[in-house]
Amino acid sequence: MGDAHRVGVVGLGVISRAYLDTLAGHPAVRVTAVADLDASRSASVAPGLPGVRALTVEELLSSPNVDTVLNLTTPGAHAEIALGAVGHGKNVYGEKPLAATLAEAHTVMAAAARAGVGVGCAPDTVLGTGVQTARAALAAGSIGRPLFASAVMVTPGHERWHPHPDFYYTEGGGPLLDMGPYYLTSLVHLLGPVRAVTGASSRLRAERVIGSGPRTGERIPVEVDSHVSGVLEHVAGTLTTITTSFDGVATTASPIEVHGEVGTLAVPDPNRFDGDVRLFGLGDTQWRTLPPSAGYV
């Protein structure tokens, strides 16, 4: 094996720990630097990571010891950091969404193409046993020709558990850009590309109340829609209805269901790598769980 691929991490919020722990055990990857707009975060994180330097964001983006920038900033900064990395000849992999707006996403992709560097974006959970087992079942004809599908993500809002949830309710946030990528990536993986979209959205509350951490009880403004419903028309002709909401308390709906001519497939939470894939065939009397047949755990 050659030299380890060198990664610099920008953004040291809640999600960064999962990435740092995973990369620490990967023999082909080495984290060489961390940075955050809040310098105290990088100064506190770096000492716990052997061989990792705490840098400013600009220092990390231009560092000769970084091959790929792992962009874990809040959504509103995704495009800015990605463009900075690309401008210094770095590959960039970021948390979802790729950018806060479609125009910014196009700008990032165009800049990367000109620079000859790679751009990647979460989610990678689509490679797990949940979605991959479902895809294998569809390919095997377990439900016949897919006719329509549904996707549902309902939560009262991340402010209940996240100590600094402001970004969920500003540009680049909201349920569709925050959680929707897991569902949309899986739907495209299972049913193919989408050629047309219809949607509607609403904003039911002007404020949210933080429910944990040092800011408990603080009210934050809601600047984006918190409920989004849509219909996706896949190229193959399948129709998918999708609901993503920060306004519902709970749901009994499967995260994703695909209905075919001879059966229905229930797909587990696409925000996870695993989970049971269940099949109800025409003439069956109950659901049955399919054994994992593909993907990574």
How are the secondary structure elements laid out?
Layout: E1 5-10, H1 16-24, E2 29-35, H2 39-45, E3 53-54, H3 57-62, E4 68-71, H4 78-87, E5 91-94, H5 102-115, E6 119-121, H6 129-139, E7 146-154, H7 175-178, H8 180-191, E8 194-202, E9 207-209, E10 219-221, E11 227-234, E12 239-245, E13 256-260, E14 263-267, E15 277-281, E16 288-290
Parallel strand pairs: 1-2, 1-4, 2-3, 4-5, 5-6, 7-12
Antiparallel strand pairs: 7-13, 8-11, 9-10, 11-12, 13-14, 14-15, 15-16
Order of helices and strands: EHEHEHEHEHEHEHHEEEEEEEEE
Tell me the name of the CATH homologous superfamily of the largest domain.
Dihydrodipicolinate Reductase, domain 2
Strand order of the largest sheet: 8-11-12-7-13-14-15-16
The low-confidence parts are none
Overall mean confidence score, pLDDT? 97
- Overall 3D shape: globular
